[in-house]
Structure formats: C-alpha cells, structure tokens
Design goal:
single chain; about 240 residues; mainly alpha; 2 domains; 8 helices
C-alpha cells in the first residue's frame, strides 16, 4: 500500500453504519483508520467486521488506482524531463551556432559586405602586398608567373616576414657577388622565399675569402718583356760575354 495520509469515505456506507450501535460504529471507524495508516486492526464485533470487509475492498481499489496514477505521472515527468533536456541542448547548440556566425561576420559590415566581397577584398590586399614586395626584389623577371593564389599565400605569411626574407637573400647575394646571381622574381616568390623565413633560415657560416700571403708580396712588381729576356740569354756566352755573328 502506498504511503499517504488520507483516504476516501463514501456516503453509501451510511445505510450499514446506521444499523450499528454507537460503540460498534466507533470500532468500525477505528478499524478503518488503522488500516489506512498500516497499524494493527482492533478486535471487531460481527456487524462492524462485516461492514469493514466491503469498506476495506473499496479502499484497496482506491489505493491501487492511486498508485497507478502516481506511476503514470512519474513516467510522464521522466519523459517530459528528457524532452526538455533534449530541447535545451538543441537550443544551446542553436545559440552557439548563432554566436559563431555573428563572430565570423563581426569583422565586416554585414549591411554591405557578402562572401564574394570578402574574397575580393582579400585578393586586393594580396595584390597590393605583392606589388610592394616586387619593388624590393632585385631581379624583376617573371612577375606574371606568380598566381593570385600564391599572392594570397604571401598575404597570409605577412609583409614583415617577407621583407626580412628578401633582405636576407639580398645580403647573401652581396657576399657571393663574384659568382652568384639573383634568381628570377617568379622563382623567389613562388618558392625561394621559404628558405629565408624565420622558421627556416640558417645564416651562412662561410668565411670571407682573404688574399694569400707569400714571400714576394713585399717585392716591387715590374713589367718585364720575357721574350726579350730569353733572346738575351741565348746570345750570351758562358763567361758572360755576348756572342757576335
């Protein structure tokens, strides 16, 4: 029996109660309260006992219906709670997506800019950066071979890093000017710059070439006619006198 602190009494019991004495009525009422509370039943006379038997059956049916109602409400509450939780998650996801969309568009004027405009602005910035970098590079050949896609990659790397890469490459060219020439601009801006970025660059440790010293460095250099010297030697005798024909 479910725990509860109340029960239902029906007026249809009155016709049976009126046939009993007041003492019997008291016994019957006490028995009903004890049964509803789950306490031990008192001793009953024949008349109160008979009346209590059919009242007890009615109380049992009421209790069973009550418990069924409680179970249905619990199940409905559980399903409703799950549905609310699911709706809450869906609503939270919608709010999160909406916030992300707002954040993505916050950088731009949403009244006048669309996705195509954003792409156009990016390409325009990339082309403008490339023009500035091209002016800095020493060998201006192959400009048309640098695609718009590559220009966007350069924009993503950043102007400061690329200017530094050009400076590093130019410095190496100055050190090796006797044998090395600058690669075409198209080659540098398509791939050559990579080696000169901060994360890849390793400064050259090759020492500067110095002139070798020898025992004749301090001798005054003269211009000699070696053919004339050879002729003189051939016409001189062993004693050092000249021969005459």
């Amino acid at each position: 029996m479910a725990e509860k602190n109340s029960f239902v009494l029906y007026t249809e019991y009155l016709k049976h109660v009126q046939k009993m004495s007041m003492e019997q009525r008291g016994e019957l009422f006490t028995a009903i309260l004890c049964y509803a509370a789950g306490d031990p039943l008192p001793e009953l006379d024949a008349a109160p006992d008979m009346a209590f038997s059919f009242i007890k059956e009615r109380m049992d049916r009421d209790t069973e219906k009550y418990e069924e109602t409680i179970d249905r409400r619990k199940e409905a509450g559980r399903k409703g709670g799950l549905a609310k939780a699911s709706n809450a998650k869906q609503n939270l996801a919608k709010v999160s997506n909406a916030k992300q969309e707002i954040a993505n568009l916050a950088v731009y004027d949403t009244d006048t800019v669309n996705v195509n405009d954003i792409n156009k602005n990016t390409l325009a910035d990339a082309k403008a950066l490339f023009e500035r970098l091209w002016k800095l590079y020493p060998n201006k050949k192959g400009k048309g071979q640098v695609s718009d896609t590559q220009k966007k990659r350069l924009l993503a790397i950043g102007e400061d890093k690329l200017v530094k890469a050009i400076d590093r490459y130019s410095l190496e060219l100055q050190k090796d000017a006797d044998w090395r020439k600058a690669q075409y601009g198209s080659t540098f801006f398509n791939s050559g710059y990579v080696d000169y970025l901060d994360e890849n660059y390793t400064p050259s440790k090759k020492p500067a070439v110095k002139a070798k010293k020898n025992g004749f460095n301090n001798v005054n250099q003269r211009d000699y006619d070696f053919d004339e010297l050879e002729k003189v030697l051939l016409t001189t005798n062993p004693e050092g006198s000249e021969t005459h024909e």
